[in-house]
Amino acid sequence: MKRREEMTLLERLYFWEVFKGVVITFSNFLGNLAIYLCQCVGLCKKKRPWVTVEYPDQVTPYAPRYRGRHRLTLKDDGSVKCTACYLCATACPAQCIHIEPEEHEDPTVEKFPKRYEIDTLLCIYCGYCVEACPVDAIRMDSGIHPEVYTADPRAFIEDKQTLMQRSIAVQKQGPTEMLSQHLKRMQNIEKAPFSAK
Ligand code: SF4
Ligand code: SF4
């Protein structure tokens, strides 16, 4: 997979890209202004202007298929369901899943992930990992946005324990309560930027 596209001369000069950005911003602004003025005189009532959602103070309803933060699902005995088969890591277009497998002491279990990490700064939340998993060991049904951790990019790497704990939290609290706690943390992010996983 080609990871980094070469920039053209125009892109390297930046002015053209800045100009394109300004044109998009102003066209959206003028379009919105036109809709607003029309609605002031009773026209275009059905047309919805672009709006800015002031997250986390405002939240729009999520679609039922919304893909939130990952979690590793658990067996009945609380151990991780993942068999370290690498299918999720192979399917991941961002190459942000890192797995280290280990032999299991139970001869009926072939292997399990000694280390399972997702770099959430690289993740594009496409859900391919969930689709690829043959044993339903990874899900994105937590209903919550990616967390904002510290300024250190390493803090955004979610490890196996974090992903397993999230499954327990989903069972105990439910996605609605988890989302509400997440929103409170995000609202206080300037006071307490170091949030827990
Ligand atoms: S959601 Fe997509 S980008 Fe993120 S870990 Fe899964 S496959 Fe990779
Ligand atoms: S999460 Fe699923 S696809 Fe990924 S390594 Fe584990 S079992 Fe395989």
Structure description:
With 197 residues, the protein is of the alpha+beta class. The chain folds into two domains: 43 residues, no CATH class; 126 residues, Alpha-Beta Plaits (2-Layer Sandwich), CATH 3.30.70.3270. 34% of the residues lie in helices and 11% in strands. The protein is built from six helices and five strands. The strands form two sheets. It has a three-stranded antiparallel sheet. A two-stranded antiparallel ribbon has the order 1-4. Strand 2 and strand 3 form a beta hairpin. It is extended, with a radius of gyration of 22 Å. The two termini are 31 Å apart. The mean pLDDT is 89. One iron/sulfur cluster (SF4) binds next to helix 3.
Structural class: alpha+beta
* Integer average pLDDT: 89
Sheet bearing the most strands, described?
3 strands, antiparallel
Integer-rounded radius of gyration: 22 Å
Distance between the termini: 31 Å
- Domains (count): 2
Overall CATH class of the largest domain: Alpha Beta
Give me the number of helical elements. Answer: 6
Strand line-up in the sheet with most strands: 2-3-5
Determine the CATH topology of the largest domain.
Alpha-Beta Plaits
Query: Hey, roughly how much beta strand do the residues contain?
Result: 5-15%
What is bound: which ligands? iron/sulfur cluster
Overall shape: it is: extended
Roughly how much helix do the residues carry, as a percent range?
Answer: 25-40%
